[in-house]
Amino acid sequence: MAGFDVRAAVEADLSALADLWHAGWHDAHAEILPPDLGAIRTRAHLADRLVAARASLRVAGPEGAPLGFHICHGDELDQFYVAAQARGTGLAAAMLRDAEACIAATGARQAWLACAIGNLRASRFYAREGWERAETREVELAGAEAGEPYALTVWIHRKVLG
């Protein structure tokens, strides 16, 4: 996956990342998740979450115009989005390798992520990259207010890290 540099996010990336995340979330999830969750996922809500996650926010693409990002917490790949125009370029695979390296650097031997049930495009991508759909379970997502959870049943994908 040469040619794709994944780096720490800078301040100049945040506005474009909020746009990317908002568009990506609604593209992938609006048709398959409850409408009340979609109503929570406003651009402002996602922008606030990016600021809160800044220390673990990694991006690919030019400063101020990133094409994708990921956020890892411990052994979890918490968020992973690639702009529609970057799909099929190899960027997503390069970013996933970076996320796996970030998780491995914490000492974790296995990584996991939650994928919305019905998000077949994402699930197939993870499978191609060596992630196994291991279980279906309820998780708590960020709700409308900080600290307010939103329960959702999701597919859990796992990967043993090398």
Topology, please?
Layout: E1 6-8, H1 14-29, H2 35-40, H3 43-52, E2 57-60, E3 68-73, E4 76-82, H4 91-104, E5 110-116, H5 120-128, E6 132-142, E7 149-160
Antiparallel strand pairs: 1-2, 2-3, 3-4, 5-7, 6-7
Helix pairs in contact: 1-3
Q: How would you summarize what this structure contains?
A:
By secondary structure, the protein is α+β, with helices and mostly antiparallel strands. Helix content is 34%, strand content 31%. Helix 1 packs across helix 3.
Notes on the protein architecture:
With 162 residues, the chain is α+β, with helices and mostly antiparallel strands. It has one domain (6-160): Aminopeptidase (3-Layer(aba) Sandwich), CATH 3.40.630. 34% of the residues lie in helices and 31% in strands. It contains five helices and seven strands. It has a four-stranded antiparallel beta sheet, with helices on both faces. Strands 5-7-6 form a three-stranded antiparallel beta sheet. A hairpin with a 7-residue loop joins strand 2 and strand 3. Helix 1 packs across helix 3. The radius of gyration is 15 Å and the shape is globular. The relative contact order is 0.16. The model has no long low-confidence stretch (mean pLDDT 94).
